[in-house]
């Protein structure tokens, strides 16, 4: 439940708490004398009390490369037998990332996910239909533990078997739905096809992949809910790092446990509030894998000031993209999220799309596969995309249902044809 002592404390109180916890972290890293401790020593830090919150910006970063270089347990900050669980990301875009948790870390994670669920409108007694994948991925088990900690009833569906999901949603009168935004759309579509009544649903917590305001509108059109954004990453803890409240005006970062900065991705220097930058997190209370200034690659802007919901936690915008998601097509920088905004903002197509970058020929092509609501929107979309991206994309309007729907895992928004292909029927 909303805990005013933690979520609505005065900024001075919170800063004092963060400083105290940061000192503890620095002392623990120095004592473990591992990679991060060594870097702190090199930076001239001899103990926690040498560090201030304002001086955090001068401390060394940690990166995904550090996790890979020290895979699987090289960055562990506790004895190996204190590791209660491991999670991570599957590494579809590279090598797997593995994250260790002590029992205390698991308790913290559950508390943060309970906070997120409550922030988005869940309460003890809620029925949480959890369609995030269970397993190494943090979505399923993280939300599950949070729902249990909140005192809700969790329905551990995992992804896939959409017909059965619809059945359970209606039979159990779930009020909270948790899954990826792409799967929420799929569930909405399937419920309409089945004529199912999902009116017990009130709110959804959707995350694990980028989604635009336009996609929010599309989800709220097919499901009778408020669609809230939940953000997190395995390296920091999983889901539960930040969540929107019912105001839907930025995600409250649980900054008493995850200190956040936004930096210029090129220079690493802090950017002012309101300016998009790469999110950098420090985890002062985590035990097994505490991270100092971890560079996420996720781009978002920070905003301070009290929210009408009463929380004083700093807010982050929706993730605008990832530093490494940018496509370069014929020299033009294209963010998939921008294409999503144009497509869905046009009101001409269904909220399902896929981008194909064809790099087989001498000059790269950007293909956009979508499904029309009515008529043939090709010319209008080519024009809108050109106006917004400065690039001529080739728009393919496929028959309804032909753009792949994701049932399990994260949506695949971009495919690249190097020599093989074509992965999507109807495109050439
Ligand atoms: O996706 C944790 C999670 C599970 C968050 C369920 C929310 C809900 P990873 O698999 O490690 O962890 O992937 C983390 O996914 O760095 C972002 O690029 C992206 N991501 C996560 N949440 C959001 C979001 C989980 N709300 C990576 N908006 C992150 C945009 C998100 N991108």
From TrEMBL:
Pfam families on file: AMP-binding (PF00501), AMP-binding_C_2 (PF14535)
Which reaction equations make up its catalytic activity?
A: 2-phenylacetate + ATP + CoA = phenylacetyl-CoA + AMP + diphosphate
Q: Which GO terms describe its molecular function?
A: ligase activity
EC number(s) recorded for this UniProt protein = 6.2.1.30
Q: Which residues form the AMP-dependent synthetase/ligase domain?
A: 78-284
Give the InterPro entries listed for this entry. Answer: AMP-bd_C_sf, AMP-dep_Lig_C, AMP-dep_synth/lig_dom, ANL_N_sf, PA_CoA_ligase
Protein keywords: Ligase, Nucleotide-binding
Say if the entry is tagged with keyword Ribonucleoprotein: no
What pathway is this protein said to act in by its record? Aromatic compound metabolism; phenylacetate degradation
Q: Does the keyword Transit peptide apply?
A: no
The function of this protein is: Catalyzes the activation of phenylacetic acid (PA) to phenylacetyl-CoA (PA-CoA).
Give the UniProt family note: Belongs to the phenylacetyl-CoA ligase family.
Protein name listed in UniProt: Phenylacetate-coenzyme A ligase
Organism of provenance: Actinomadura meridiana
């Amino acid at each position: 439940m909303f805990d005013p002592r933690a979520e609505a404390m005065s900024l001075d109180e919170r800063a004092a708490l963060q400083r105290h916890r940061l000192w503890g972290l620095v002392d623990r890293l120095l004592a473990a004398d591992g990679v991060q401790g060594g870097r702190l020593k090199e930076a001239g830090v001899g103990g926690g009390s040498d560090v201030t919150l304002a001086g955090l910006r001068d401390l060394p970063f940690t990166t995904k490369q550090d996790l890979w270089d020290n895979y699987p347990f090289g960055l562990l900050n506790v004895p190996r037998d204190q590791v209660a669980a491991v999670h991570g990301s599957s590494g579809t875009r590279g090598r797997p990332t593995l994250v260790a948790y002590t029992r205390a870390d698991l308790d913290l994670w559950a508390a943060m996910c309970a906070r997120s669920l409550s922030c988005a409108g869940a309460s003890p007694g809620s029925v949480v239909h959890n369609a995030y994948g269970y397993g190494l991925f943090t979505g399923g088990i993280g939300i599950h533990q949070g729902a249990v900690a909140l005192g809700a009833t969790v329905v551990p569906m995992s992804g896939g078997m959409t017909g059965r999901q619809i059945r359970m949603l209606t039979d159990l009168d779930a009020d909270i739905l948790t899954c990826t935004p792409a799967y929420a759309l799929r569930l909405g579509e399937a419920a309409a096809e089945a004529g199912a009544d999902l009116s017990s649903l009130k709110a959804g917590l959707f995350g694990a992949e980028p989604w635009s305001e336009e996609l929010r509108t599309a989800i709220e059109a097919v499901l009778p809910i408020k669609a809230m954004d939940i953000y997190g990453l395995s390296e920091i803890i999983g889901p539960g790092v930040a969540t929107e409240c019912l105001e839907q005006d930025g995600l409250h970062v649980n900054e008493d446990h995850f200190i956040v900065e936004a930096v210029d991705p090129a220079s690493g220097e802090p950017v002012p509030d309101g300016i998009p930058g790469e999110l950098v997190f420090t985890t002062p209370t985590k035990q097994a894998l505490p991270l100092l200034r971890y560079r996420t690659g996720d781009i978002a802007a920070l905003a301070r000031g009290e929210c009408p919901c009463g929380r004083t936690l700093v807010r982050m915008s929706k993730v605008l993209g990832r530093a490494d998601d940018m496509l370069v097509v014929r020299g033009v920088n294209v963010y998939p999220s921008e294409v999503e905004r144009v497509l869905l903002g046009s009101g001409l197509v269904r909220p399902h799309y896929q981008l194909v970058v064809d790099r087989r020929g001498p000059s790269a092509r950007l293909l956009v596969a979508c499904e029309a609501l009515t008529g043939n929107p090709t010319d209008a979309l080519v024009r809108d995309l050109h106006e917004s991206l400065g690039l001529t994309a080739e728009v393919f309007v496929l028959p309804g249902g032909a753009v792949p729907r994701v049932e399990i895992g994260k949506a695949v928004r971009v495919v690249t044809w190097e020599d093989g292909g074509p992965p999507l029927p109807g495109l050439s």
